[in-house]
Amino acid sequence: MADVLGVVLAGGLSRRMEGPEKSLLQLGDKSLVRHVADRLEQETPQVILNANGDAARFLKLGLPIQPDTVEGFVGPLAGVLTGMRWAEENSNATHLITAAADTPFFPKDYVSKMLIHRQNQDAEIALASSNGRRHPTFGLWPIKLANALEHFLVDEGNRKVMLFVERYTNCEVNFDTNENDIDPFFNVNTPDDMKKAEDYMTRQLKS
Questions:
Q1: The whole model's pTM is what?
Q2: Where in the sequence is the domain holding 110, given as residue range(s)?
């Protein structure tokens, strides 16, 4: 199995959420981003946070905080590259596993299943999917692609995840949704989404 660094992607601009930054909104007894970090920490030896702006707002998480190494908020691939560069300097990891900071219910076996499927299919990159939809912020990425990814973002000026992914052998790892259950990659973008997350958590606690 590959040595994996967990990276929580919180580098977006939260345009659709009114009020405070969405990743710091409380869901139950902890923030959305803490839910995500906790799930990654169950399956990986180390987790870092990719976030832009004032790092002080995330200090309570106790995670290394790294802003995008590419300026301009160019999307999730900037966070992937940031994690790769951090890993090169600070870990022995061969791969990154990424998760979006606003997706608190992603599968608890996410990392192990991604690793197994990538290895079984001899793929370089693996992306998660559910209900027929890919989730580009949930991927397994070889750190050796850092230079190629930087060239893609900076020199070519590209930012589309699938355009980069399709340059390499890749696979899609499906995570089924149980009947009457929420999509495992449901993410909180709006106040209505937050209410849905709260209702789902209440049902989970009662079940």
A1: 0.93
A2: 4-206
